[in-house]
């Protein structure tokens, strides 16, 4: 693996993390991204956000976000309503059903994060974070 590129390593690591998150989420008939959306909305004021905020937070296309949110709506995890002053803007809100799942979602995300960084010192963690943020900011 000495000749493997950083880009390929990042791709492999990303796929591994997604696969692990999906395995955890599957027990609750969710996907990993849906778990992350529940967590994201739970930390917003009134457990709600504009659809565009979700697109930006997870760096996903509008059509992908719409499909994912439709599936979450079908599972009664969220509701989408038009904004009062701009009907084109959709506000996404967690439902009581999603809030019931929140402790499980939070636990899995926290455990996953802890496992991810457990083998690294605080200074190594800071370096890894800086490296990854540098890649993201170069979009």
TrEMBL record:
The HTH marR-type domain, residue ranges: 1-137
Alphabetical list of InterPro entries matching this protein: HTH_MarR-typ, MarR/SlyA-like, WH-like_DNA-bd_sf, WH_DNA-bd_sf
Organism: Ligilactobacillus ruminis
Transcription regulation in keyword set: yes
Protein name (record): DNA-binding transcriptional regulator, MarR family
GO terms of molecular function: DNA binding
Matching PANTHER family: HTH-TYPE TRANSCRIPTIONAL REGULATOR MHQR (PTHR33164:SF56), TRANSCRIPTIONAL REGULATOR, MARR FAMILY (PTHR33164)
Keyword vocabulary terms for this entry: DNA-binding, Transcription, Transcription regulation
């Amino acid at each position: 693996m000495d000749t493997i590129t950083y880009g390929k390593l990042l791709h492999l690591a990303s796929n591994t993390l997604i696969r692990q998150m999906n395995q955890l989420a599957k027990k609750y008939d969710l996907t990993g991204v849906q778990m992350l959306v529940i967590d994201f909305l739970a930390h917003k004021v009134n457990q709600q956000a504009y659809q565009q905020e979700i697109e930006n937070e997870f760096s996903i296309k509008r059509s992908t976000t719409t499909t994912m949110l439709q599936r979450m709506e079908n599972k009664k995890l969220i509701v989408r309503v038009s904004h009062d002053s701009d009907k084109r803007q959709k506000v996404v809100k967690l439902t009581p059903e999603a809030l019931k799942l929140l402790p499980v979602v939070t636990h899995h995300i926290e455990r996953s994060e802890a496992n991810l960084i457990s083998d690294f010192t605080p200074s190594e963690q800071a370096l890894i974070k800086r490296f990854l943020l540098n890649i993201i900011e170069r979009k």
